[in-house]
Amino acid sequence: MMVLRLLIFLLAAGAAGGAAWLSTKSETAPQVPVAAAERITTRDVLVAGSDIKSGEILSPDNLRWEAWPEANLNEMFITRDKRPQAMTELSGTFVNTPFVTGEPIRDARLMAANVNLLSNKLSPGKRAVAVKVTAESTAGGFILPGDRVDVIRTATVAGAEGATARNESQIIISNVRVLAIDQTAVQTPEGSVLGKTATLELAPGEAELIVAAEASGMLSLALRAVADHAQGETASFEPTKVVRIHRATQTSTVTLR
User: Fold this and answer.
1) Over the stretch 129-146, which tens digit does the pLDDT of each residue have?
2) What's the pTM?
3) What is the CATH number of domain 42-111?
4) Can you give the residue ranges of every domain in the chain?
């Protein structure tokens, strides 16, 4: 019994000694230094806050500043330290090519909102259609951008068999706005603008009507008074149809209006 107790005592003493030795070893072991995490320098870059399609206009709602690693910056990026007011400055600018969310904004892909840009002058849902004109067909050349006009179509109408052909004129669209004369979309200091084309603001259906009318006759513009501008637009035109009627060996024509 005494031998067993002695054996247990020796085992316990040995275990305690081993634990003490391990503790001393860990305290005296050299400490391996831990490398400090490398600090990354960033700068704020102006990026798209959401997907921006071509033709959309920039605003603070679709822009944001985002931290970018300085090592990954491109000279074309817009940074806050160089252009702190860029978000406000670019508001109202047109986007030429689309941006995806988080993509840096670049000036080369933007277009300034020009007050003289013709598309800026178009009312929603309208189309710009150019028609050939002369000084005689534009009230002597005194029709200016911003005026309102009636569009008159003049065409040669064939009469019945043996009858002389005649010219007929008809107002096909009333009270439409003139957007430009040739390439001029604003009034010049000299006043009238003599040009070869007039660009009119038309609804899609009116645009089709104008093209058909111009193909079958000559168009003239009649200047309207400013007091009439508040009146709504009206359009009425049906292409003249000539029907040939064959009776035995005789042929006759009838003009349908």
Assistant:
1) 888 877 666 665 678 888
2) 0.47
3) 3.90.1210.10
4) 42-111, 121-246
